[in-house]
Amino acid sequence: MKILVVGSGAREHALVWKLCSEGNEVLCAPGNPGTQALASSLPIGASAIADLVEAAEREAVDLVVVGPEAPLVAGLADALAARGIATFGPSREAARLEGSKVFSKEFMARQGIPTADFALFSEADAAIDYIRRAARPLVVKADGLAAGKGVVVAKDSAEAEQAVRDIMLARAFGDAGAKVVIEECLRGQEVSFHVVADGENYVALAPAQDHKAAFDGDRGPNTGGMGAYSPPPVVNATLQATICKQVVEPTLAGMASEGRPFRGVLFLGLMIVEGEAFVLEYNVRFGDPECEVLLPRLGGSLSELLRGAARHQGTSLSAYRSQWEAPAALAVVLASGGYPGPFPLGKAIRGLEQAQSIEGVQVFHAGTKLEEGELRTAGGRVLTLSAIGADIDQAAERAYRAADAIDFEGKHLRRDIGWRARVHAQSPGW
Fold first, then answer.
1. According to the model, what pLDDT value does residue 97 have?
2. pLDDT confidence band for 398 (50 / 70 / 90)
3. pTM score, two decimals?
4. Domains within the chain, CATH numbers bracketed
5. How far apart are CA 248 and CA 268, in angstroms?
């Protein structure tokens, strides 16, 4: 197949790497130095919808795979569908599951999907009054897209109130903060659960666990993700089946019944509390860095899976069986010093070849650029070092050896990715 991948981060590099390994002709818009080594690059930004549609037509691609959420929320899949171009990614209406936390919480309430108790606000004063009366741990979320950073898990009422002021009054996330969701703070383990859906049928992928906090011990501000691993011991076969029955199936059925069938990858952010799963949030694209541990583990054809979902080919998805070739995978993100706050750019990167030579390791570019033939930093998250292994311990050893081989000024990483499973890992049956 001839496939156009939209996006420029480590997630898109992982998609390009996997699709190329299956013998497809792949283009990437706009791509990054990592994708450029594998695929043709198109100098088109991920939000340039008209230009992307024109390029997909000009290049006569068989499939468009959309990586980031913003163009999906803006209607890229709809624009491509209007031209008869098969697209892996949901419509604008279906993408509201991620595009609006207000919409998603109201949807969960309508469909009886387990989630934390919540309240919705469009006025800061009312939100602050609710916080003062609640007298319990709370989470404050900006309604719209905020690059994974619009969520504040408040340690007390004062922090929750400040989050409201930052989001709604100071507009730290722009118009995404016009409304907020305030919900009860659930205590447990967070899990990332992906399914690929064609609007009716679905294929469940292996679970993963992300590490959002900036520093070891899950301390510090939320980031876009500092690392991930798969599989997490907390999800066994029984819980996986329960998640599918209580969350996945009612979500897909509810979206279809409301006239917005979901086609693409549905990424559930779940909290596991005493063996029960509650939805924290919906996402309508692969997680990043979760994608960088799922795809190296995947033994079946990603191309077949994405095409089946995009084209809604009757039984194509129901007949697909995911295969997990690698028992475990772990990914470590190398970030710029200061991330997720202000950080410097343009720092020279060394050691990529040494890292890539380690058995089981793949280096995925996130925020890099080539400048006069030299690779330099160009974002907060710079590289993702992903490694497969016979177990989590081996995958971690390989990933961290790769991380230590790479150097740039201000390099920051967490040293405890996969800490819940790195000692005496227990297989959950994947």
1. 97
2. very high
3. 0.93
4. 2-89 (3.40.50.20), 117-184 (3.30.1490.20), 189-405 (3.30.470.20)
5. 9
